[in-house]
Design goal:
The complex is a heterodimer of chains A (136) and B (144). Chain A has 136 residues and is an all-alpha fold. Chain A contains five helices and no strands. The relative contact order of chain B is 0.14. The chains are: A mainly alpha (136), B mainly alpha (144). The interface between A and B is large, with 46 and 52 residues.
């Protein structure tokens, strides 16, 4: 039943599709990750109306070291999915650019890094100074 | 054990669902473009300008408004913003999961059961979020 999934995982590692393949795999993984997080996040936010203690517990969970690391992945996922998705949408409408797929993919990975790395850096700095800080 | 070919046990998409697939394709582009701004703004605001460690329910109560209290124009705007983000993100996510699942789960009944479960989970979560936005935050005393 899950043979296609096993094949996909194995061939995804083996297939040497370079950055085009990498961004295809990352788009799916970040998308699934974002859906999982959103389901948990919206449930937690909804509890601000129905179960305030549960909502508070979720907010406090966001402030733990584990989530401070997790939110870095979240930042990368969100930025990558947004930028790569934009590339996909633009290229689908512009057949004249189809011979420049690799350039476009490298550009979208570059823009992702330029946006995501400072974002992750600021968040990491905030978390580190929070956990090291005297006010904790 | 690689067989050298992929055997698909799933029926190809029927002609009748072409309209739906086209609408889904357009929706993914439209919602993606809008979410690029809505979701990134939300993320940067909470994680950079406010900071995860400073997030407090008192801020949410101010922004959304509290159940049973007068709601001002700013709070209506915030609720609309979160409502649009919520709906677009969840539908975008649901269709994304459908596309990925369709590629890997070739047994049609398994695919159908999985997608029914996913749709119910996403539907219920979306309803909880939307209801919270319509009602406003709880007025429970003593919460920070």
């Amino acid at each position: 039943m899950f043979a296609p999934l096993v094949t996909t995982v194995r061939e995804s590692v083996r297939y040497r599709g370079k950055e085009g393949h990498l961004s295809w795999v990352l788009h799916r993984l970040t998308g699934l990750g974002l859906v999982l997080f959103m389901v948990a996040h919206i449930f937690g936010m909804g509890m601000v109306a129905f179960n305030p203690p549960l909502h508070d517990a979720m907010i406090e969970l966001y402030k733990t070291p584990l989530f401070s690391i997790g939110e870095l992945f979240l930042a990368f996922s969100l930025v990558f999915h947004a930028i790569n998705g934009t590339r996909i949408a633009i290229l689908e409408l512009k057949p004249e650019l189809w011979n420049q797929q690799q350039k476009a993919t490298r550009l979208s990975i570059g823009i992702t890094l330029v946006l995501a790395l400072p974002l992750m850096g600021i968040m990491a700095y905030k978390s580190i100074s929070h956990f090291m800080g005297a006010g904790h | 054990m690689p067989t050298g070919r992929t055997v698909r046990h799933v029926k190809p998409i029927s002609r009748g669902s072409n309209k739906f697939e086209r609408a889904a394709w357009v929706f993914m582009r439209f919602s993606g473009l809008v979410l690029l701004f809505l979701a990134l703004f939300h993320f940067v605001m909470q994680h950079v300008f406010i900071g995860t460690h400073n997030i407090a329910v008192s801020e949410t109560m101010k922004r959304w408004g509290v159940q049973g209290q007068h709601i001002n124009i700013d709070q209506i705007a915030w609720r609309l913003y979160y409502g649009v983000t919520l709906l677009l993100a969840m539908l975008h996510g649901l269709n994304g999961v459908r596309q990925v699942a369709y590629d890997y789960i070739h047994a049609r009944p398994v695919f159908n059961i999985l997608m029914t479960v996913v749709a119910i989970v996403i539907g219920v979560i979306t309803a909880i979020g939307a209801l919270a936005l319509i009602l406003g935050t709880a007025a429970a005393p003593g919460i920070a």
